[in-house]
Design brief:
CATH topology: Rossmann fold
Shape: globular
Strand content: 15-25%
CATH class: Alpha Beta
Largest sheet: 9 strands, mixed
Structural class: alpha/beta
Radius of gyration: 21 Å
Order of helices and strands: HHEEEHEHHEHEHEHEHE
Oligomer: single chain
CATH architecture: 3-Layer(aba) Sandwich
Length: 304
């Protein structure tokens, strides 16, 4: 009798679960689904360019800001990308990320904001004066004769995401000079805000950000950062804005630049996929090319 009762309970539970699943809306996979791969086994080829790099500098007020320029090593013109480093500064590991962007076919300007002010790595407090150095970099990049676009995309990680947010909104660059916002696990709150706001709030500038936005994080991202990022994307989507959060399983913070001795297979998969998706996204919004990119309009939800 007991076993019959348990069987009946299991059947009822299974039926209820199936009914809930049937009533739940299907997850939107249109942004990543590819019929060519599913039906015919075709994998889209990556765009690869041999790159070259050089150092330059520009004036921001009385400060001379060193900057790395990375671009394909030919005579062609390419879309413009402003690469903004985070708390690590523009060290060798972070420069590798910038090179991977340029190798997709972009002219990348990466200012060394901390180096310009003789700051060490991983500063705790945010110096608002440094924001003007990032803003000045927009004009420097867009004045180059080897770019093919009249706007640039802001590409950043960690605290660089906050610099990018301020340049787009407070400095009003999103109106005429910036075409999109891409960031890896960005700090989307004022770093000087009190602790509760670091976890439960978000930068008020998020309300003003209207740029097409693409953000990448790992599923193992720090809770206080992940919560702010997810909330920020939800706020933008609730306003009908083009914002997408992609979450990679099995990786955490730093998956894009973790060095070889601690790097995992999942880190590498996430890094390669994210830079490819970022390149398609930027090309779409800087040149109008839809090749491999998601459709225009508001993008709902995050993805595992």
């Amino acid at each position: 009798m007991f076993y019959k009762f348990r069987l009946v309970v299991l059947i009822l539970i299974s039926t209820a679960v199936n009914q809930v699943a049937a009533q739940s809306p299907a997850e939107d996979n249109s942004w990543w689904w590819e019929d060519a791969w599913w039906n015919d086994g075709l994998i889209e080829s990556a765009e690869n360019h041999v790159i070259e790099s050089s150092w330059t500098s520009y004036k921001s007020g009385d400060v001379e800001v060193p900057a790395l320029v990375i671009r394909p090593s030919d005579d062609g013109n390419y879309p413009a990308v402003l690469f903004l480093h985070g708390r690590r500064g523009l060290d060798d590991l972070v420069q590798r990320h910038a090179r991977r962007v340029a190798a997709r076919g972009f002219v990348v300007l990466a200012p060394d904001i901390y180096g310009a002010h003789f700051l060490g790595t991983h500063p705790i407090e945010h110096d608002y004066a440094l924001e003007k150095d990032v803003d000045a970099a927009v004009d420097v990049l867009l004045s180059r004769t080897d770019i093919s676009t009249d706007k640039a995309c802001l590409y950043s990680h960690t605290r660089g995401g906050y610099y990018a947010l301020k340049v787009a909104t407070t400095f009003k660059r999103q109106q005429n000079h910036i075409g999109c916002y891409v960031s890896f696990y960005p700090h989307l709150q004022d770093p000087n805000a009190p602790e509760p706001l670091q976890v439960y709030g978000y930068a008020p500038e998020i309300e003003q950000l209207t740029l097409p936005t693409l953000v990448f994080i790992g599923d193992e991202e720090q809770y206080q950062r992940r919560r702010v990022i997810e909330t920020s994307i939800d706020v933008m989507q609730s306003k009908g804005r083009n914002a997408r959060l992609i979450i990679y399983p099995g990786v955490g913070r730093g998956f894009d630049f973790r060095p070889k001795n601690v790097r995992t297979f999942a880190d590498d998969l996430a890094s390669k996929d994210s830079v490819q998706r970022a390149a398609k996204f930027m090309r779409q919004h800087l040149t109008g090319s839809n090749s491999g990119a998601s459709s225009a309009g508001a993008l709902a939800g995050s993805a595992l």
